[in-house]
Amino acid sequence: MVFYRLKDLIKAIRACKTHADERAVIQKESAFIRTSFKEENVELRHSNISKLLYIHMLGYPAHFGQIECLKLAASPLFSDKRLGYLGTMLLLDENQEVLTLLTNSLKNDLNHSNMYIVGLALCTLGNIASAEMSRDLCSEVEKLLGSSNMYIKKKAALCAIRIIRKVPDLQENFIQRASSLLNDRNHGVLLSGITLITEMSLASQETLLHFRKAVPVLVKHLKNLVSAGFSAEHDVTGVTDPFLQIKILRLLRILGKDDVESSEAMNDILAQVANNTESSKNVGNSILYETVLTIMETPSDNALRVLAINILGKFLSNRDNNIRYVALTTLNKSISLDVNAVQRHRNIILDCLRDADISIRRRALELSFSLINESNVRVLTRELLAFLEIADTEFKPSMTTKICLAAERFAPNKRWHIDTVLRVLKLAGNYVREEMLASFIRLVTQTSEMQGYTVQKLYIALKEDISQESLTLAGVWVIGEYGDILVRGGSYEEEELAKEVSESDVIDLMESILAGPFANQVLREYVITALMKLTSRFSSPSSSERVKQLLVGFSTSIEVEIQQRAVEFTNLFQYDEIRPAVLERMPVMQIKETVIAGERLNSAGSGGSSAQASSAAGPSDQDLLLDLMGIGTSGGTTNAQISTGAPTSSGNAQPNNIDLLADLFGGSDISSPPAASKPSAANVSGLFAGIGSPAVGSPPTSANNNILDLLGGGMATSPAPAATSAFTNRPAPSNGANTKKTFPVYSKNGFSIVFTPQRDSANPNVVNIMATFQNDASVSGGAISGIQFHAAVTKTQQLQMRPASANEIAGGANATQLLKIANPQKTPVRLRLKVIYTTANHGPVDELSEFAGFPEGAY
């Protein structure tokens, strides 16, 4: 059945009970329409296009009607043009070549005497104009912008926006016409003109500067709108033309950005709008929101910014979730401008944490963390911990991290810091990141006066709950390290009764953790290690025997790591004379002190800020590489300069990882082919010779022999290789009691290095070593150039090297370089040294060796 009217087709489609019936009806109608197009049936063209557009709206193919739409648009009848242009906008886009056939029709209609036909052409051009069509019809649109007809003028302005977006170079053609639109009294023309100017200002900085002169005109229009009485034509729920007000405010925000003069011109009207706009309805709230954004993004007065933040505070009390969400998002962006003004609304922000809408809770949470500072850290952290207890699972990982970071940054004292992290571990221990757990462990090791308090708190917490993984890991580690303090510390309070903690109580707790349902492989590894450490902390033989039996039970575990630990720890019971030393307490983790010490050491120089900045990024690749080799500093080294001891002399950049590998393996030229630079077995053995061995000339201790036996006895205790003729570990004899001791380190090819050590007067844990470079011209043959001196220390120490006073030494002259070594463990100072230089007689020289010539215990 064929439907000759659109109304009949709609009824037939709506009467279909299934999709198959609907498709059948549309297929028949589409076939009829195609046949009609082929037959050039002019009388049915209008009806066919209308039916085809309805079919297109339902999602069925209608592309075969594109040419017919163009024919309809070329018709002299207004009704045909209207439907033809509508079909063109729906069925065509700017990328289709067929669109070029429309250019001539559009050009004719833009010059038509009927304003409604001109409006149809402008509307079509503004929707589907391509870059080529924009260039062809730009002059017609520019001419229509100067029309006296308001209807044509506002449509031409909107069409000009499309042209500018497609061809930005054409915007200069519209600047003059757009400026004249601001003087029009018709709100429609003014609205479209301001929209055009906004688009042009965003596209070009030069245009923006040109239109800044129009700020007084815009202010005048906005003032008229605010102070105008009731106008039925423009009134929207009691507000005069809110759409125009918002457009003006948005343009003022763009023009006033980073411009003090323009901002001063609009301050008064912004205050007037903020104070006089009714906020009980959405229309007023939209204007207030635009006003707030304009104030925040322009260099406004502080009083205006406080007013804007107060408006956002009022938004937070609104029942509409959308308004509250907008307020929280804007406060998050503006907190950097005036944090004190935002702090006044802290209570209502915290109330939003309990809102039913998850999006509002998320934004309120972000804002709450941004508000934390030294003065309110206790209050805000307490509220955030209360929210953490009831928070959604997706919030907990980020919340635990941010609370721990805030506590670390703003903690009023160490005890509060520890209590806060403990509370986080109790409430959401399964969501605490590994970095935060490590930070807490570091805090405990660094705070010796709080170790007894912390180990008791963790013991109590584990007695109550072992389901939180991070809490259990932290508790097991701390109890393993400080179990003797727990037992020796006396009692803890439970239900107002003091209870003693015995060695058996601690072991019982560890057993319950191992037998619990929450024990995984990592936790079992922690517990086994902690139990083994407790054997050196507890004095009762029965406790050690009980731990030994537990370890024997794990020696057949199917988990390789656990089995290996159990077997090694069980064998360690055979060596009671060295077991306390092997299981001694972990050294104080120096990461934070390293940063502080680095700042103190660098305070006199120019590198302090760079050291602090690099420390925030954690250990570098060079640090990790040196740790792997066993000759670097600890994992908390602040930067590569400290870890490798490579000075940043003028003109020399830090060595990259390839340079470092070349240095370690004795290579001097990284540009050489890989085959030439590959180290031999002899080079590797020479590189690691002496690391971890006693100083030259000192006999190995029995403890060292026992450890070698424990590891299987396959390692011979051979003495360290003798130093080469160039390097020496012998101290030079002193000539008097008041003379500083000097230690010759290197002497070869006329180039010599002498160390003069001295303890730092401000910090006894730091030794200052002045390295003096000397040039014997009679041997070297003249000046020595390209001097590079590198050093590395053992893991228990940290090294910082100042730049050398010169990297070239004339004959008979000297140069110096200061080395600072932090040695909190008081271990023997041992240095791995590398010297690179060039002499006239010997050419390039590259030497690698080790120095351990300081008297034991002296530094």
Care to describe what's here?
This is AP-1 complex subunit gamma. The chain is of the alpha+beta class. 56% of the residues lie in helices and 9% in strands. The chain has 41 helices and twelve strands. The strands form four sheets. A five-stranded antiparallel β-sheet has the order 5-6-7-10-9. A hairpin with a 3-residue loop joins β11 and β12. The protein starts with 5 loop residues before the first helix and ends in an 8-residue tail after the last strand. Residues 592-725 and 729-738 have low confidence and may be disordered.
Largest sheet: 5 strands, antiparallel
Count of alpha and pi helical runs: 41
Radius of gyration: 41 Å
Q: Low-confidence parts lasting 5 or more residues at pLDDT below 50?
A: 592-725, 729-738
Structural class: alpha+beta
Topology at a glance:
Layout: H1 6-15, H2 19-38, H3 45-57, H4 66-73, H5 78-91, H6 103-110, H7 115-128, H8 131-145, H9 150-166, H10 175-181, H11 187-203, H12 205-211, H13 215-227, E1 235-236, E2 239-240, H14 242-256, H15 260-276, H16 282-297, H17 302-315, H18 321-334, H19 339-343, H20 346-351, H21 358-371, H22 377-390, H23 396-410, H24 414-428, H25 434-446, H26 451-464, H27 469-488, E3 491-494, E4 497-500, H28 503-515, H29 521-537, H30 541-554, H31 560-572, H32 579-582, H33 591-602, H34 608-615, H35 621-629, H36 640-644, H37 657-664, H38 674-677, H39 681-688, H40 702-710, E5 743-748, E6 751-759, E7 766-775, H41 777-780, E8 785-793, E9 798-801, E10 814-822, E11 831-839, E12 843-851
Antiparallel strand pairs: 1-2, 3-4, 5-6, 6-7, 7-10, 8-11, 9-10, 11-12
Helix pairs in contact: 1-2, 2-3, 3-5, 4-5, 5-7, 6-7, 6-8, 7-9, 8-9, 9-11, 10-11, 11-12, 11-14, 13-14, 13-15, 14-16, 15-16, 15-17, 16-17, 16-18, 17-18, 18-21, 22-23, 22-24, 23-24, 24-26, 25-27, 26-27, 27-28, 27-29, 28-29, 29-30, 29-31, 30-31, 33-34
